Amino acid sequence: MLSIAWAPLYAHPLPAAHRFPMLKYELLPEQLLREGVVPESAFFTPVPPPTEDIVRTHCPDYYQRLCAGQLTRHEERATGFPWSPALIEREVTILGGTLECARRALQGGVALNIAGGTHHAFRDRGEGFCLLNDQAAAADYLLAHPELGVHKVLIVDLDVHQGNGTARIFQHEPRVFTFSMHGARNYPGRKEQSDLDLPLPDGTDDAAYLGLLQDTLPRLLAEHQPDFVFYLSGVDVLATDKLGYLALSPAGCRQRDEFVLGLCHRHRLPVVVCMGGGYSPRIADIVDAHANTFRVAADLWN
Question: What is the CATH number of the domain that holds 201?
Answer without folding.
Answer: 3.40.800.20
